[in-house]
Amino acid sequence: MPDHPTCNDWCLSAGYARGNQVGTAPFCGGKCDNAPACFTATHMLSGYGNSCVVGTKKCRCWSDAEPADEATIEAAELTRQLDAYAAGVPNPTE
């Protein structure tokens, strides 16, 4: 996987069929919409684009079948890590 994976790259590596990033700057409002895995997108993802003034972007992972238990555990851990990172990163527009 590249140093800065896309949302789709990350989802594929976690065992999902595909991933997509939602929320358009400046008023992002990305939602998980019942995706099996979903986390707050940050500049750590390639293709993040412009920063949000309000709201957040989300990376949503989708699949026809649930990933293996190990992948689920890893995905949940990465979700917590990325959300914690996003919470600690100041908004460059402020």
From TrEMBL:
Superkingdom, natural source: Eukaryota
Name of the protein in question: Uncharacterized protein
